[in-house]
Specification:
Blueprint lengths: L15 H28 L1 E14 L12 E4 L2 E20 L2 E23 L4 E3 L2 E3 L7 E2 L4 E2 L3 E7 L7
Antiparallel strand pairs: 1-4, 1-9, 2-3, 3-4, 4-5, 5-6, 7-8
Length: 165
């Protein structure tokens, strides 16, 4: 088989000029994607912020499961460093003849984990390792000794050290 056939096609498949045009188009697309990535990285508003993750109705809680200084992760990667951990008994509603009574649960706790992170600000929310952190968002969290696959509500606030006073 010859490299160029009688119709000037490479190996009988494609014209060399068509191949060159196709390669230029692919190269331009790759360069364009790379340029857009670089521009988006430069224009990101990277900020340090704090948020509280609330794991509700957790059973089998041990105060040593999450400690300050540990890295909090999601499936996408690290999403901050633990600052503090607070636990409160879960409030449970009990119906009675005279109405509903709210009392603390003797079994379940709500876990409040205060976290500091650095991410790209995006109008009231932040992106950290591909996870959008905003008020009332939901995610799974993991630390070295703790894994919550329940609903997590984020309460986001700017880092007090970075807020203009």
């Amino acid at each position: 088989m010859r490299i160029l056939d009688d119709r000037y096609r490479l190996f009988g498949l494609i014209n060399p000029i068509d191949l060159l045009v196709l390669l230029l188009i692919v190269a331009a697309c790759v360069a364009g994607v790379q340029l857009l990535r670089e521009l988006s990285a430069e224009t990101g508003d990277r900020q340090t912020f704090e948020y509280t993750m609330i794991a509700r109705n957790v059973r089998d809680w041990n105060d040593d499961l999450i400690k300050p200084g540990e890295t909090v992760r999601s499936a996408a990667g690290p999403i901050g460093t633990v600052l503090s951990v607070t636990t409160k008994p879960t409030q449970v509603e009990f119906p009675t003849e005279s109405g509903t009574v709210v009392r603390p649960s003797g079994i379940e706790k709500d876990i409040y984990v205060r976290v500091r992170a650095e991410g790209d600000a995006d109008g009231g929310s932040y992106m950290v390792s591909g996870v959008r952190i905003q008020n009332n968002a939901r995610a799974d969290i993991r630390t070295d000794h703790f894994d919550v696959e329940k609903i997590i509500f984020f309460e986001v606030s700017p880092d007090p050290a970075t807020v203009d006073k």
